[in-house]
Amino acid sequence: MGYRQVIIKKSEKINLKDNQLVIVKEDSSIKIPLEDINYVLLEDPQTTITARLLSELGKNAISLITCDETYNPTSITYSYNYHFKQLEVFNKQLELDNSVKDEFWRQIVKRKIENSIRVLEMTSKEEFPISKLQSYAEEIIEGDITNREGLSAKIYFRSLFGSDFIRFDDDSINSALNYGYTIIATAIIRNLAVHGLNTYLGIHHNSKINNFNLAYDLLEPYRSIVDLFVYQNKDKIIYPLSFDFRKQLINLLNKEVIINKKKYTIDYSISLVIKSYINCFNTGEIKLDLPLIIYE
Fold it and tell me: Residue 202: pLDDT above 80?
């Protein structure tokens, strides 16, 4: 497993040589060993990429993310049949009982709200929203059928970004949030493939047109990390997002979170969350190891 996120803003061609990613720009080139790389984010639509490189990226579990003209990620490649027991893992996913999924979702929503509370304690510090979210966190039942997640999100975003803020509006803050969420979701998708899990089969998300239901289930507790960063830098955001700001959002993968009282980078912590999910198949223990945001 690598450790680097490679962002290619401008290049003529990317190819493979001596098991290295070669980035060609004008009369110069940059070489990066494949073993060092986790993700390649390609922003230049004019770049030529060789089939040999695509093949080796897949063999090495390196995800290639391509972007549109506004630099928003639009596609991701990930390894095909990378795991040696793909069918066994898939069958265990299919057999997962709905009551187990409901309990997993309760744990996910609870940790998401707990992280939202931590963000508000570091930012707006408004007593009523914090108190309300604390009560919601204690009221969650299996499957969150009373929708404490949705109620919390409405209060949370208004406290964080103001009463006029509307999630999914076409503005700079929403653009930054969406970009950050997508980057972390991409890291989750890659890790799910590495561990042999099917991304269609979600815990709570079950959209027929979403190839990554499971990834967006596991994304929920991580969203607060993006929210906090965007809040801290909201006065610097321009739309479309600047290259420097996009780099900082991608670098959030190196930010630390707490799992079981130990600190890990977000990128590494994702594998721990997924392993705890798989552990349920083998031991029957219905417990997810979920990230807790660190106070700053």
Answer: yes
Helix (H, G, I), strand (E, B) or coil at 80: coil
What pLDDT score was predicted for residue 94?
A: 93
The pLDDT score that the predictor gives to residue 84 is: 66
Q: Report how many helices (DSSP H) and strands (DSSP E) the chain contains, helices first.
A: 10, 10
Pairwise CA distance, residues 35 & 91, whole Å: 31
CA distance 222 to 208: 24
pLDDT digits (tens, 9 = 90+) for 14-31: 999 999 999 999 889 999
Cβ atoms of 209 and 277 within 8 Å: the answer is: no
Eight-class DSSP state of 95:
T
pTM above 0.85, yes or no: yes
Mean pLDDT across 79-83 = 71
CA-CA-CA-CA torsion sign (213, 217, 219, 223): positive
222: three-class secondary structure by DSSP: helix
H or E stretch including 41? Answer: strand 37-42
CA-to-CA separations, 60 to 33, 73, 103, 141, 270, in angstroms, rounded = 11, 21, 34, 41, 18
pLDDT tens across 272-292, in order?
999 999 999 989 999 999 999
Cα–Cα distance, 155 to 18 (Å, whole number)? 53
